[in-house]
Amino acid sequence: MKKSVLSAMVVLLLLGAAAYAAFFVAPTDAKQGVIYRILFLHVASAWTGLTSFFICFIANLLYVLRRQPRWDWLGVSAGETGLVFTTVVLLTGPIWAHPVWGIWWTWDARLTSTFVLWLLYVSYLLLRTLVEEPERRALLSALFGIFAFIDVPLVFGSIRWWRTQHPQPIIMGAPGSGLDPTMYKVLFFTWFAMLGLMTLLLRQRYRLEAMRGDLEIIQRESEAA
Amino acid sequence: MALLSNTAVLLGKELRTEFRSRELLTTTTIFVLIVIVLFSFSFDPTSEESRRFGAGLLWLAFLFAASLMLQPCFLREQSNDTLSALRLSVSDPFAIFLAKLVANTLFLLLTELLLLPVFAVMYNVSVLPMLHWLVLVFFLGSLGVSITGTALSAISAQARMRELLLPLLLLPLLTPILVASTEVTTALFDRSPYVQWKGVGFLAVFDLAFLTILWLLGEYLLEE
Question: What is the least distance, in Å, from the CA of A156 to any CA of chain B?
C-alpha cells in the first residue's frame, strides 16, 4: 500500500478515536453540560494552528538565511495549514460561546488576537499571490512572515492588558482553575490526533508546492528556449 | 559612526525632497481633517463622548493616514530607478531605513501636531495641560508606525497592486500600537488626566522590538 494512503488511514483512525474519547470518555461538565465537549475540537485546533504557524516562522527564517526553495515550500504549506486550523477555531468559538455566554462574539483578548492572527496570515498568503518572480515572492513573504509572527505576542499582550473583559484562562490560568484530569488526557490525545492531521496536510501541500516550483522552472526554461 | 553620518546625509535628502513639494504633508493633513469631520457624524461629539471615543478615532485617522503616506517611501525610489544608487552609496543598508523612518516619523508627528488643535477645538477636548505627555505618546506611536511601515513599504513596492497591499499588510500589524496609544491618549484626555506608564512602556518595547528586527533583516528587504 502507498505510504500516503497508509498514513492517511492512521490519522483517520486517530481522529476517530479522539472523537470517541471526546464524546464518551471525558466526563460531562458540571456547569456547561454536553456543550463543553466542543472544547476538544476548539482548543486542540487552536494549539495545532499555533504549532503550524510556528513551523511557518521557522521555515521563513531558514529561507531568509539559506535560500533553499524547500523552506519556502514548507513556509507556505505551514501558513495555509495553520490558517485552516485557525478558521476552525474561529468557527467553533462562536458556536460554543452562544449557549454558554449568551453571545456569539466578544472582543476578548483571545478571540481578538486569534482574529488578528488569522488576518495577518491571510495577508501573508495574499502577498504571495501578488509577487510574480518565485525567488522574490519567497523572500518577501518570508520576511513578512517573520514580522507577523513577532507581532503576535505584542497583539496578544496589548489586547489582554487593555481590551479584555477578563475571563480568566482555564488552562494554565490562575490557581483553582483547571480541567478534570480525564479531560486533560482527552484534550492532549485530541491534540495529538490533530497534529497527525496537520502533518498529513502539510506533507501533501508541500509536495504540491514542490511540483509547482518544478513546473515554474520548466515553464521558464521552455519560454527562454 | 559611518552609519550615523550616512543616515544624516540620507535624512537630509528625504527632508529636501519632501519640503520641495510638500506633497505628503499636504495630502496627509487634509486626509486626517476629512476623517475627523466624517467621524463626527458617527456619534454625538459632545465633550463627554469625545473624551471616551476621541483618542481612538484620532489614532485610527493617523493610522489610515500613515498607510497612505508611507506608500511612496520606496515606490518613489523604484519609479525613479534610484534604489540601486542608494544602495551603492551606503555601506550599511540599515542607514537607508533609518533615514526613511526618521523622516516618516517627523512627517507624521508634524501632521499630528498640526491637527491636534483642530481636533481639540472641534471635539471639545482640552489638550493644553497634558501637551508634553501627548507629544511623547505621539512620538512613540508614530515611531512604531514608521518603523513597521517603512519596512513593509519596501516589501509592498516590489509587488503588484502595491497601493492596496500596504494597508492590508500594515494595519493588522499595527494593532498593538493602536490599542496602547489609544489607551494612553484616552487617559490623557480624561477629566482628571494621568499618564498611563504601562502603555508608554509598551509602545517603547514595540518600537525597540521592531527596530531590532529591521536592523537584522533590513539588508534582505532591499535585495535586488
Answer: 8
Verify whether the Cβ–Cβ distance A131 to B169 is below 8 Å.
no
Which pTM value belongs to this model? Answer: 0.89
Give the residue from B152, B175, B203, B207 with the most A CB atoms within 10 Å of its CB, the best one to mutate: B175
To the nearest whole Å, the CA of A89 is away from the closest chain B CA by 19
Asked if B163 and B89 touch (Cβ cutoff 8 Å), the reply is no
Using CB atoms within 10 Å of the CB of residue B159, give its burial: 0 to 12 exposed, 13 to 18 middle, 19+ buried: buried
Query: Between A and B, how many CB-CB pairs are < 8 A?
Result: 74
Query: Into how many domains does chain B fold?
Result: 1
DSSP assignment letter at A38: G
pLDDT band at B149 (very low <50, low <70, confident <90, very high): very high
Do the chains contact at B155 and A143, CB–CB below 8 Å? yes
Name the residue range of residue B179's domain.
2-221
Residue in the block written with cell 513596492? B157
Over the Cα atoms of chain A, what is R_g?
20
Residue with cell 517603512: B150
Q: Tell me the sheet residues that pair with A175.
A: A177
ipTM reported for the complex surpasses 0.85: yes
Closest CB from A64, A127, A154 relative to B176: A154
Contact B25, B104 (CB under 8 A): no
Report d(CA A138, CA A76) in Å as an integer: 9
CA A14/CA A19 separation, integer angstroms: 9
User: Residue B159 pLDDT more than 70?
Assistant: yes
Which sequence spans correspond to the domains of chain A?
35-165+182-218
**Of B221, B1, B224, whose CA–CA distance to B101 is shortest?**
B221
Helical H runs in A163-180? none
Question: H-type helices in chain A, by residue range?
Answer: 3-20, 39-66, 69-101, 109-129, 134-162, 181-224
Nearest by Cα to B39 from B14, B72, B65, B68 = B65
Residue B176 with chain A: CB contacts under 8 Å: 151, 154-155, 157-158
